[in-house]
Write a structure and sequence with these properties.
This protein is α+β, with helices and mostly antiparallel strands. It has 42 helices and 15 strands. The strands form 4 sheets. Strands 5, 6, 7, 8, 11, 12, 13, 14 and 15 form a 9-stranded mixed β-sheet that branches. A hairpin with a 4-residue loop joins strand 12 and strand 13. Helix 18 packs antiparallel against helix 19. About 15% of the residues have low confidence. Belongs to the pecanex family. It is a multi-pass membrane protein. Pfam families: Pecanex_C.
Length: about 1150
Amino acid sequence: MSPDVPLLNDYKQDFFLKRLPQTILGGPRLKLGYCAPPYIYVNQIILFLMPWVLGGIGTVLYQLGILEDYYTAALSGGLMLVAALVIQFTSIKAKTKSVTVERILTRDILAEEDEHEFTSCASAETVRFLIPGKKYIANTVFHSVLAGLVCGLGTWYLLPSRITWLYGCTGGTVTLFIFGWITLCIGEYSLIVNTPTETAAFQTQDTYEITPLMRPLYIFFFVSVDLAHRLIKNTPALQHMNQILHILFIFLPFLWAFGTLPPPDALFLWAMEQVLEFGLGGSSMSTHLRLLVMFIISTGTAVTSYFIPSTVGVVLFMTGLGFLLSLNLSDPNFVFKHSMTRNRVETKAQTSPRALERQFLWKEFLLHVIVLVLALLEASLLHHFAGFSQISKSSSQAVVGYILMLLLIILWILREIQSVFILGIFRNPFYPKDVLTVTVFLGKQAKLLRAGIVRRILLTLVSPFAMIAFLSLDNSLQRLHSVSVSIGFTRAFRMVWQNTENALLETAIVSALHLLISSKDLWWNRNLNTGMRLLLVGIIRDRLIQFISKLQFAITVLLASWKEKKQHRTTTTTLCILNVIFFPFVLVIIVFSTLLSSPLLPLFTLPVFLVGFPRPTRSWPGAVGTAACVCEDTIYYDQMVPRLTAALQTAMAGGCLGLLLPGSHYLGRFQDRLIWIMILERGYTYCCINIKGLELQETSCHTAEARTVDEIFEGAFEQEYSKVCSLNEHFGNVLTPCTILPVKLYSDARNVLSGIIDSHENLKSFKGDLIKVLVFILLQYCSKRPSKQNFHKTESKGETSLIVLPPSSCPRSPEDTHSFNSQTFNDWSDDIFDDEPTVQKGKNRLNDLPGTTIHLPGSVDSQKIDNLSTGTISENSLYKAVMLGYPAIDKGKQGSMAYISLTEFSSLHSHLVSLPEEWRSSCVPNSRMKEMSSLFPEEWYQFVLSQLECFHSEMASAALEEISKDKVLKDFYVHTVMTCYFGLLGIDNMVPTPGHILRVYGGVLPWSSALDWLTIKPELFQLALKAFRYTLKLMVDKASLGPTEDFEALNSCLEEYESDWYIGLVSDEKWKEAVLQEKPCLFSLGYDPNMGVYTGRVLTLQEELIQVGKLNTEAVRGQWANLSWELLYATNDDEERYSIQAHPLLLRNLTVQAAEPPLGYPIYSSEPLPVCQC
């Protein structure tokens, strides 16, 4: 990457510099980029200062003692309401007027939207420019009323006497009054006049006009604290908070401009997540609906527990509801499907899927019922019968605390030894080394799997019951009807099941502090019950993990900018020096970002750090898995995901992926595939994940970062280390290797076929093999036709079949004139012996097959069929019905045509393998057909007949002997096979060229009369094309593995193609079907015009090893926050922009790809997938 890659292009810089002042001031467009009349600026200034003027009237009247403060607020609010309505209805009236607008010619495309020619200060064009108006009438009224409320309450909030009472300083009063009213004017202008584009952009489109509510919402919050202080007097904490917020109020424009404060929708979702997780013990949810429902139910649980009169009832209620709410009760069927994936068998199961599903669900249901009953019994018995004593080293609760500490240490050790690195730094000596194959890996991992099972039992069954015992023995539960007890213990009993590992850590810490801090006078023991202590420790634990992750991310960005030459820019040195000098300020930004649980935003991914606005864990507003940039490669991820989910089930249960937290990101790598895994939700024995597949067509940046990922995984899993505990060489990278997952998926091998497909000897043998494969395909097809009767039934009926022999000439009927597509001739207009193919995309002959309305050669008109059934048809008419061919014959000469007599099969059973009647004709001249019939492999024909499944019984062997001697049947096969042969290779019987083979393989056949004959028989056309492709694969296999020794080997090879292979084109729909049906092998032929070589692609379904590593969560969130800001606010969508270039430490390009569309472009994104860990 060149260091001179611009952060913003020149035309985007001008656009950005015009947009930024508009955002800071709340909507006034004072920098237009072109010359506008002065009244445009004057009108905007008047509209901007209007709330101050209206509020100033009420303020003066209050200061003069004419009105009380609340009347002052009402007066200012009423005036603002009237003004807002006038402004809005003026905009509506201006929209109804049609005015001719002249655009000013400009070179800057982005400036054209803003350039208008204004006729007067009150013209319709001027009004539309100044006041765009609202999309909905309801918002027109609602926003006007809201503007009145904001102005009225803001006037009350900024009364000079009130500010003086809070601070007792005249200078401070003047400062807060002036800048406070500027803040109010900014909020009012964005609400009622013109809404600016916010830097804190969450939604790609503001469909319901939520953005105008953002700034007034925060003004209401500040005012509400002041109102609470007015109502609840003599509260020092509330007074201090009010004083701080009055000062912070004047800095709101900067917080809005920097995008620190979230828009209303993001704020609402983020607040629900934070309360649900830290206040109620829940988890982030995979969908917005689940989050809302779970928040309501969890809040109701805490409220209900407050009113329960019995302590035992409270314990039972909290224990039971905590367990039930931690389960994934929404979609158990989906859990079943993915848990059964790893136990698939290729043969048919004796038990039906419905029975298996019922069995699994009953087992899961029974397990949960048993756990719930045991938990309720334990909690009630311990709480009722055990004595409650003060915390001491010998109390029963202290003993349980010791057990919890021991469990925590054991579980941490068992979890860390499952990964390749301990703490992400030291190589695990117990992890398998130098693993390249599945069998070797599974053999070496057996001991670790047993340790994982022990860990899962301790974590799922032992730890929750130990924590319930600790909580049930706490004496804080004796205090009923306490808000802190209800909230604290509702969360504690829920966390036991929802996130057992974190709950165990928090409980062990609280228990240790119980033993270390024995003084009752300390604030920790005096003012907090055990539930609130656990809540406080949980918040500190979460924020501490975030702080460490953010700090590591910031240091990585800083060091990469300095050390990586490709990331070095002219401003890099200056930025690094400033970061070192102002490191305390940078640290404050990181701390503030951590407290808000918001992403640390590196501007343009440079070491310029801002506090991003708080947003939900998923980072994006849309539903998971609803958008992806689908392409041909998507199907491979579609096949892989169910099996990968099953492999993740084992890895998560054993602890191989480390601590599972909502919002965690993992990266998987196999061959050219990159899998992005995100944890959305966490509960008891389950996780909900989203899997994304990144593009396989690698760009230069994608390739560079993929190579870095390969180096990281190779160093972790394939490299031998001399030391017992070696260090992680890539510790500074955002990716830390975790484990290897054995998954059954398609391995992709691409080979160069030059030297095989262009070998003259191979092409000569291709011709002979093609006839044999045609015989095999047609016999197999005819023997398995669904219309055929059972052999025994046919024998009893004793019917005979009337057969029409092929005519000697092939007159072409008028109905067949359109069966030849002129485009096919264009595809073959070059020399057919030219080695370089000229196949054009989208010109597949398969797509030109006619419908059922086309006249089929050999078919009989419906009226004649009716006559035939009544016995009135003449013999001459039946003969005329089968005449076909090319060219058309003069009607005057039709009487001279030679007719052929109807012939019967010599065997009564020949129709078991007979060709369809419409295939029994031929369009090849008799002389040519007789000449080429010698090529027909009669011995092979007899051998394939003997191998058919329908002739393997004793009774069928006699019928087989009769059929093999049926000359009429054989003649029809000769004519059909040779006609197909001519259609595929041409009637001249020349050795095909590589270009010819490639074109026919793609379905583009050379023109001939045989092609027209094939085209109107779609089923036969498909079989002939299938035979051609099988022959090509046979040629490649013979060149690679050696020739087939006898008919047995050839038949076995073709049967393998039939059962285990799909041979066709990657673009075929049947290729996708074969991948989803998990066909063992797939083959495709291609041509690389850049290299000038023929290529073969082979997909093989087998157990392969996927390498998985954990990504720095804050690095992903920070880069996604910058991506959102760049694309939605700065509109920096340049494909070569700096922030999308390859970065070996941040994996910047891959992270951008994995973002949700339209900002990112993954080619696959799954719906939320529950992973059961039982």
